[in-house]
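Worked example 2:
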Amino acid sequence: MVQNNADEFVKNSAFSYAAKAISILLGFLYLFVVANSLGPEEYGNLAFMMDFLATGALVLGFNALAETLVVFIPKTMSRKLSGTFLKIGFLISALLSVLAYIFPETVVWIAQKGTPELVQLVVAVVFLNVVSTLIISILTGTKNFGKILQLAFTENILNLGLASLFLFYFNGGVIEVVYAKMISLLSIIVIGWIFYRKLPLSDADVSWGEIKKFGFLSAALGFVRRGSTQIILVFVGWFIEQGKLGFYYLMLKISTYFVELPITSLNNVLLPTISAQEKDPEKMQRTVSLSVKFYLLVSALFSLILVLIGPLFVALIFPGYSEGIYLLPLFAVYFLMGFDISLGTFYRAIKRIDIILKSSSIAAIPTIISGYFLLQEFSVAGLVIALILNRGIQVIYFYLDIRKHGYKIQFIPNAKDIKFFYSIASESAKKAVNKASYFFSKR
């Protein structure tokens, strides 16, 4: 039974990994084109404004809509649930986008970065991103990872191609890069909507009580967690110059591609998988234990690769950003602690999102206070240190709560676990090679 569960889990993870692999490959190419073309100051300005406004959307609870869909779609397979959440997300994000479009000077004043024109365009990107994320959440909940793979490829290849065209052929800049992102997001929304309409969802009524409770708690969590991040970003706008922001965001992207993206695909499969295992707590806890151990093993490997290869990679591919190389070891530590994502997924699946809310609330105040002083003392390195502090506090809280309630979640992988992961990975790789060989033999 455990083997069958693992096989299904790995099979679904394979599609998610493929989507992430495409994102990593095309993401590196996109980063090479955009970051080198714009330079640290313009790239930092664009990346900061994207981050600032996207975080603002998350503070308002849009991530709660996506999380609730991923948790409850596997159980209800309800078109009413998905349709209602799509309408809510569309209407609220459209309203807020209109307000930001009308009053862009206010956003520039708060952030102390960017221009009114840039704010107006980035707000449109945030709106489109909310809609596309909700559609992808529905596809995730229904375990249509192959379709998510198609959307990932389409969005990334369009974004790369259009950005390259606008920058090199039309001699564009930041504004044209934003236009490329808008067009690529709009394209996958159209394709994703076609996928969504073909899903075998039911028109039956759903019980809204549990869904509303989970959604409100998730929205409160987003407000606390992203609210503290938003305050930190305000401090960043006040204290950090644009060139250093360019160093920070490039190193963040590279670290994300090296460490986080290859393993977060596991979490994309984990939530709908363990949500469907709600009636079998032991099976759920085994699955979470496997994911935590796998995360620790793989993140340790990729973090080591980042520290060893990252500096040379930046010096060769992004020479204009070499001044920010010292941030890579800090990001390696931050992402190494990222198994809290799997633990948070566990609490979401057992409807104890209040635990995540408590951990985020406890971590928020120390993060904000320390961030204020660390940014002034250590510039962007202080920002990464504040992020490490925040994640460390939440990991400790999760660990203590797990032990308090006797959840059978294990953290440290043993030799048997490593052998198990190797056997599953080897078998999956062989199947992939066989399928590829069969495909090419038929051509």
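The chain has one domain: 2-429. DSSP finds 15 helices and no strands in the chain.
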